[in-house]
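Tutorial, part two.
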Amino acid sequence: MIQKDSNHVKRSKKKGAFILVGFILLIWIFLYYIGPWAANIPMVRPLLNFVEENDIDAGAYYYTDVEEFAEAEFAINQSMTYSPKKN
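Running the prediction step on this input gives:
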């Protein structure tokens, strides 16, 4: 009969819990520190200003069928389909 190493199982569970907590902490740090800091980067600020000035719901582009998103998706698909091929 094969016996499982109970210490190995305990270490595996502890390692998994540690990794889970680490990822949750990493997401929290990104949302509350890195994300707001990135909004002040000179290249990003004009884009955020444009979105705010035009009252654009940026989340709607992902979750709904907005006409602008459909046009952008069509253009991207066409450029990928009909792009020049390498020989």
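The radius of gyration is 23 Å. In part three we will examine how such features are distributed along the chain.
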